[in-house]
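Hi again,

Forgot to attach this to my earlier email, sorry! This is the prediction with pyridoxal-5'-phosphate bound. I've pasted everything inline since the attachment limit keeps bouncing my files.
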Amino acid sequence: MATEGELRAARAVAAVVSARGAGWAATAVERPPMADHAETAGWDQTLVIDGWRNSRGASNLAFNEQVKHLQRCGRQIAHFAFGQSPFPIPELAVAALRQHAGEHAYLPVAGLPELRRAICDFHLRHDHIQLDADYMLVGPGSKELLYLTMSVFNGDLILVAPAWTTYEPQSRLAGKVATVIQTGSETHFKVTSDHLETLFKSRRMLPHRMMVLTNPGNPTGLQYTEQELRDLSETCRRHRVIVLSDEIYARLTFDSTHVSMAKVYPEGTILTSGFSKWLSAGGWRMGYAHYPAALAPLLSAVRSAASNTYSCAPAPQQRALAAALQPKHAHQLDTYIGTCCRLLRAVGDYCARQLHAVGVKGYPSQGAFYFMPDFEVCRGALAARGITTGDQMVGAILQEADVALMASSCFLMSETDLSTRFCFVCLDGAAALAALDAGESLDDAFVERHCAQLVAGVRRLCAWVLANSA
Ligand SMILES: Cc1ncc(COP(=O)(O)O)c(C=O)c1O
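Structure tokens for the complex follow:
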């Protein structure tokens, strides 16, 4: 049996490895005691595979250490760097999980057939797309399925920056060197056919190519229109690009106008999603991936990788979700989604407007928990203080305003870009939902009343901007 010290060391190492991908804000990072033993025993970084000798995450880890340290010192940090649902899981899903807590048997690798069918029905209702339960894999979070898909794929991987923190580390872990397309504000940080054409003109690519698309985006909170997706799909068809379409935030688009890439490019889209965001069940670890029939070799390789790694997604959660997704609950779940979206939109708009008023630009969020304010207005004053990178800037904001934001470099953007990811979810979601249910109107006064910690953080941030702009 492991001693307490060994367990502590193992946990610390796991925290270091997961810190960048899992959102560093969620993870306590300590120097692993194991490393000391390793050094004295003569082991070094050559123990670790090439692409995984963790150096790139260091600045984020150091920043996270700072956040944790300040919190331990009693400082009230507004944690705008932490992106998880603030809402409680709907009671009908919790009750179903309670009922199935005794499930102990392994389930099929691909997931319970009735759950896979229920997921297909769910997408038919919301996205008007016809998925096939036989081409669906349910796994312990879509993150795992994204990773396994990248791992078994034999070809070039294309990422779109700003990109979610996890894709690039996953691609390295999968033994790949991803090609990154940089997008900018002129395309609302979305990839276009022009980006792809330029890439294919400038580089010889392997015969198989896969592009990871995040819609709506993390960190941008912006969504693709149907026309934009259609344009992209034509280019993808022409260049035989498979799209790994991460639509985990689809149900949290504020005006319910999400269009799935699988609708416009069914033959070339792998759709991933899950229950972590719209159902607020991140800790349940339940996600899924759907593969088009034409990509059956990939599906069966991922299924095989799944069977040799995690075996199956947790049985109680699968049974509970199969029950929760029954048509008789659809109205209740849709109402829950609608209310969460109304609240997220009000809070996101509030934050964007306050920052805009002091000169911080950025597109207001259209969905998810995020938007990307750009602190360019501070560049001159910060340069005079010797602050020239996003990392340095978020460090200063943390120290001087007690506000934690993630710097652009975490999303594969330039180190000198002063855009950040702002997560507007540090609020008591249960209390806010209860207030809405009680009939309170959803205006700025509501946000100021029910999201006091978030509002205080925004005010400190605005004051910091005013003090640090010309
Ligand atoms: C863009 C994006 N994709 C995927 C995931 C992973 O979700 P899951 O909980 O299904 O693994 C997240 C979670 O933060 C995310 O932000």
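The chain has a mean pLDDT of 90. The longest helix spans residues 330-357.

That should be everything now.

G.
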